[in-house]
Every structure is written in structure tokens, then in C-alpha cells.
Design goal:
The relative contact order is 0.12. Helices cover about 35% and strands about 15% of the residues. The chain is elongated, with a radius of gyration of 23 Å. Strand 5, helix 5 and strand 6 form a beta-alpha-beta unit. The chain is built from ten helices and nine strands. It has a five-stranded parallel β-sheet with strand order 2-1-6-5-7, with helices on both faces. Strands 3-4 form a two-stranded antiparallel sheet. A two-stranded antiparallel sheet has the order 8-9. It is α/β, with parallel strands linked by helices. It binds S-adenosyl-L-homocysteine (SAH).
Length: about 260
């Protein structure tokens, strides 16, 4: 996957991208990240990228020209020029995603959707955000990483890059590891344990050390259901559940009634 990031601060990215699993994904050839400085596309002498808002009100707004130019030059470097003058049409097939607190809330299923793409463009706003015409006529999708406001889209872009990269084939090593993660199948994942088997008198559940694959799988499924029941019961309404899952959840409900909590 090729991810193009448009930002005023490309220097914010390398520290995170060049360590651990994101570094490995790039070395494997599964991920390439291209950082584009929006400032490089401002054609005036002082490379101005932001101006005060029309109508006053303080703050600065990212100007449309450098952002359009950056995306247009990216598109023309990727494909032969198209005839239409409609940039929404011309970006067809190339998702141009604006990070914004007003976008659709980012979820694991959006990460899965984006992981199918060959290329993504992530546009990071700053200050008061981007000129509305960028949103209306250039951007094809808008994503928010949560109901809070950051100073810029850079962290949000890294969140998207990270969540998408770990879904790319082979990146996590253990085949299927991403499939049991929280949210991947509509449930939270159960607890994990590692060595030592006994730590300060707190021991690892016996079943995990039994070597009995089917019992371990069932235990993990039940702990995943228990966690979800305790912390995010709303998720159980849409999760895909088997008969055995429903029976286990029924037992959890009864236990709760018995202890009267
Ligand atoms: N004035 C804007 C917020 C600007 S915050 C508004 O009220 O909607 C500055 C930039 O940070 C935004 O352009 C966006 O790119 C980024 N940003 C802030 N919060 C974000 C969030 N929750 N998710 C994604 N991007 C966010």
C-alpha cells in the first residue's frame, strides 16, 4: 500500500514510522509512506499556506491553492491526465481523506475498508482547518479519530496509518493475529498472559498451560464474550454469535442475577 500524507509538518512523522511494526512493514515492501510538504506547493514568493478567515474570528485557515496543487500533481504523477475538469471525478479510485473532527468516526471496519486500497492520500489540517472548498471539491472522505480536537491532523493520520498497516498481509507475523483483536470480529479480546507462570503468587489460568488447543480456543472465546459483556454490552447486539456463545452469555446473565448485582 502506498500512503501519501499532505502536511505542513512532515518532520513529525519519521520517529513513529521508522520503528517497530511500521518500520518492518516498509522493509517488507507492504507499505510506502510518501510525505508531501504542503508548503512546497505554494507558488507565491513567501510560500504562504494559511490566511485569516474571511469574516474575521481569529485563527488561520489553510488556503485551497497549495492543497489542490499538491493533490493534482500527485494524481498526474500517478496516471496519465484525464480530460474532465471535475476533480472529484479525477480522483476517482484515489481516496483523498481529510482528517477532521467533523469526519466519520474511525473504526476497525473503516481500517479494514482502507486496507483494501492500493493508495491513500491523507490530508492533515492545522489551525482552524482547511478552506471549505477543499472539503467540497477535492476530498473524497473525511475521518475523525474521536470526539476531541487536536492541534493538527498529523497524529490522526498516524493513527490511520498504524491501524491500516497492521491489517496488511504478513505484517503482524502470526497469521490471523489481527482477526482476534478487539473490534475485528465485533467483540473485545480476552486477557493475555506470558511468562512467568506465577508472578507474586498470581498464576496464569491452568487451561492456557494445558496444551489442549480446543479447550484453549473455547476459553479464549468465552473470556472475549465476558469482557465484551462487562465493558461493551452494546457490541453484543451486533456481534456474530454461535449457539455456544449465546448459552455462555445466558449463564453470565444468570450469575449476575444470582449475586444480585
Ligand atoms: N476548527 C475545526 C478544528 C480544527 S483542529 C473544527 O472546529 O472543526 C485543526 C486540525 O486538526 C483539523 O483541520 C484536523 O485536520 C485536525 N484534527 C483535529 N481534531 C481531529 C480529530 N478528532 N480527528 C481528526 N483530525 C483532527
Amino acid at each position: 500500500m502506498h500512503i501519501h500524507i499532505l502536511t505542513l509538518f512532515p518532520g513529525m512523522f519519521p520517529a513513529y514510522l521508522n520503528e517497530s511494526i511500521l518500520k518492518k512493514a516498509q522493509e517488507m515492501g507492504q507499505l510506502t509512506v510518501h510525505l508531501h510538504n504542503i508548503r512546497d506547493y505554494a507558488t507565491d514568493r513567501h510560500h504562504v499556506t494559511d490566511e485569516p478567515p474571511f469574516g474575521g474570528g481569529g485563527g488561520m485557515v489553510l488556503k485551497p491553492e497549495p492543497i489542490f496543487t499538491a493533490v493534482e500533481s500527485l494524481i498526474s504523477s500517478l496516471q496519465s491526465p484525464l480530460e474532465s475538469g471535475d476533480w472529484r471525478l479525477e480522483t476517482a479510485g484515489l481516496p483523498v481523506i481529510l482528517l477532521t473532527p467533523q469526519g466519520r468516526p474511525f473504526t476497525q471496519s473503516i481500517a479494514q475498508e482502507l486496507a483494501q486500497q492500493e493508495r491513500l492520500v491523507l490530508l492533515c489540517g492545522r489551525y482552524e482547518g482547511v478552506d471549505e472548498r477543499v472539503r467540497q471539491h477535492l476530498v473524497t472522505d473525511e475521518i475523525s479519530i474521536g470526539d476531541y480536537v487536536l492541534t493538527g491532523g498529523e497524529l490522526a493520520a498516524l493513527v490511520v496509518v498504524d491501524a491500516v498497516t497492521r491489517l496488511l498481509p504478513g505484517v503482524l507475523g502470526a497469521e490471523g493475529a489481527a482477526e482476534t483483536d478487539s473490534h475485528a470480529n465485533g467483540l473485545l479480546e480476552g486477557p493475555h498472559y506470558t511468562k512467568p507462570a506465577d508472578f507474586r503468587g498470581w498464576s496464569v489460568p491452568e487451561v492456557l498451560r494445558s496444551g489442549h488447543a480446543a479447550r484453549i480456543a473455547r476459553w479464549r472465546r468465552e473470556e472475549s464474550l465476558r469482557r465484551t459483556w462487562q465493558r461493551r454490552p452494546d457490541m453484543l447486539l451486533t456481534a456474530v454469535l454461535t449457539e455456544a456463545d449465546r448459552w455462555f452469555l445466558g449463564r453470565l446473565a444468570e450469575e449476575r442475577l444470582e449475586i444480585g448485582d
